[in-house]
Structures are given as C-alpha cells and as structure tokens.
Amino acid sequence: MTSATSERRRHLTTAGIGTALMIVMGAVLVMGFRLATHMRTDIMALQTASALQAYPEEISHQLNTLRDRLEIRAYEVAALKDLQETVKRFDQDLRQLGAAGNINSPELGRALLMWHEYEPALEPVVSFSDQPYVDSDTSGSALSPEGRQHYAAVKRAQLYAAESARPLRAQLVALATSLQKTASDAAARLRMLLLVGVLAALLLAAAAGEMPRREQRLSLGRERPDEYVPWGGLRYDEPSLRAEFGDGTRSVEWRVAGHRVTREGPVSTLDIDLADTAHPLGVTVSYRVYDGFDVLDRWATLRHSADKHGADKQGDGPPIVIRQAHSANWWLPSPMPGRSASSPR
User: Fold this and answer.
1) pTM, to two decimals
2) 73: left (phi over 0), alpha (psi -120 to 50) or beta
3) In this structure, are strands 329-333 and 254-264 parallel, antiparallel, or unpaired?
C-alpha cells in the first residue's frame, strides 16, 4: 500500500467517522427534543390534573353555602359569583386536557363523561340572574317565584354533587397518577437516549483517535529516523532499501519484530528484526562491538518471510525485487547551514 493510498484511506475513514458522529448526535438531539417536548406537555397536564382534584369538593361546598344563604334569605350574590367562577375554571381546564391530542387516558375520558353528566344539574344554578327575594310588609323577605325555582335547582345540584364529587375526584386522581407515570417513563427514555448518544459519541471519538495512533505506529519513520531507512512515506533521506513488491507497491513500513543480544568471548552482537507491515519482507540489522576497541560493525540481512500460504517462515511466495540495498545510512555534516548529508553504505 503506497503512502498516498494510506493517507487517502485515513482521511476517508476520519471523514466517515465524523459523518457517523454527526448523524448519531443529530438523531439523539432530534429524538431528545421530541421527548423533552412530550415531557413538557405531560408535566403541564399533570399540574392541571393535580389542581383539578380540589374542584369537585369545592363546587359541592359552594353549593351548600348557596343553599344555606337562600334558606335564611341572606345575601347570596357573592356565593353565586364564587360558584360561577369555580365552575367556569374547572370546565375550561378539563376541556383543555381533553383537547390535548397527546393525552390518551381512559381516566380522562371517564372524568369528561362524568362532568358532562354533572353540567345539566349545574347549568340552571350558575345561569341564574333574576332576583331571588321579594319584600313584604307583613312577612319580610320571601323567595320570589324565580327564587323558588332557583332554590330547587340549587338543592338538586347539591344532592347530585354529594353523590358525584368523590367519584369525579377519584377519576382526576387516577388521571394525575397516569400522567405522572407517563412523564416518569418519558424522563427514563430521555436519560437512556442521552446515555446511548454519549456512549456512541465516545466510541466514535475513540475510533477517530485510534486512527492517528495507528497511522503513527505504521509510519513511525515519518516522525523520527528509521533504524533501516526504506523508500516511501514522508521520508526525505536517501534510503538504504528500495524494494518493489508483486502488487506494484514500493513503499515499506517497518515494525519491530524482535531483537537478540549474543556474546562470544570479547565480541557482543545485537540483532534487530524488522518486518514490513503489509508484505513478506524482513530485515535483520546487526551491530557488533569488540571489548577494548572503538570499532562498530553493522550489516543488514534481507529475507523473504512468507511462503505460498502466507505463513511467517522462509519459503516461496510473491516475488520481491530489490532495487537497492545498503547496510546503513551515515549522516555527515553538510555545507548548507542547519542540514546534514546522508551517505548510504
């Protein structure tokens, strides 16, 4: 694989990982936004349902108050006004919950049905606008004909409220419980979605970070001098080795395959085994030193390291043409400032 091909593949892989990361994060954001919107709607509905629980008992209490004031012929305008406002708020909030398309709860349906049955009993009471009393010189204040009808309507509504307030409140409590569970489930899904998104981002980031490290491992010679300089990559030194493989590739990337230190009498030898990362080419760079002498021997031994089955042992395999092979490169001072000249030997 040539250096340009390796570089192009690295860029394509990095771009692919970046695109995948953008897609994953975009999907997480879109789905998270939808879940957050549903959670907000559920929480608002839960707050409304919780507030509505007090209305049935409040309506029943206000009906009792209005009935008591009519019986003693007392001023009842304020009591009637309070009842009208309570009924209006309850009706508006409950209908608003029913109009919300995302709330699919049987408790809400039963509460709406009970309220629809409740409304005919309350309508004559809250729509009353006549004078309930007439004054008499002999008997004082008395109920007017309209007042007697109003009083009878209040008693009927009060009796109906006494029977219906608790069941209606029970349905509203069940509705609030259902909405609370729905909101909790949505919050759990949102947390799981965010966790999956974070894990996916970390995995993709780790994969993206591994690419430069892998490239660095495969192209160590691009960052610092090679022990045995091959042709290819971002190397500007005179190579010790020029080889051409059967697939037309001429670039060599070394990896350290092993090393050995041996000693025979006053002679010590260091052998460093290097192997190409993609082709069956290996080299052993050897150094020999002598006790008491400042003499260093160095030589290189090339080998074909794969057989026809691809095993790592010497044998037949794809042909490798050696165009140039030297034992070492020596760097000598250069007449140009800041540079050095290399001399292969």
Assistant:
1) 0.49
2) left
3) unpaired
